[in-house]
Design brief:
This protein has 153 residues and is mainly beta. It contains two helices and nine strands, in the order βββαββββββα. Strands 1, 2, 3, 4 and 9 form a five-stranded antiparallel sheet that branches. It has a four-stranded antiparallel sheet with strand order 5-8-7-6, with no helix packed on it. A hairpin with a 5-residue loop joins strand 1 and strand 2. Its main location: cytoplasm.
Length: 153
Amino acid sequence: MLIGDKCVVSIEYTLKDNDGTVIDQSAEDQPLAYLHGFGNIIPGLEQELVGKVAGDSFQVTVSPEDAYGERVEQLVQQVPLATFPEPEKLEVGMRFTAQTEQGDIPVVITAIDNGEASVDANHPLAGVTLHFEGKVIDVRDATEEELEHGHAH
């Protein structure tokens, strides 16, 4: 069966950055299963998998605009430490959800200096070119329940 919309696809993969550093990979004997055409994986990878079948290998380079987008410097802000409930417990690398007028957004603390925390709302892989290598393990029709829920079960 060819990969296309409304298929459940299982892939084994390794994801690297431009330096060849492994960023992520599927666990051994636990392929990633997703519902194709429903935005469950980044667009650049999903597009490259169209037409492949179980057993096919792939090597795909995905630019930031087809992955997590470019970094947006306006999403990095300086926040006074007094704004936080327990500023003495803050550490660089801490992740939390910030409540904004646009809703809740995940952020990470990237620096603490001069009574302020630098918080970054960019996705950690924003601006990164991604290199996928892997194999298609299985392709099947999605069930009605999977189509209703918008993800593989």
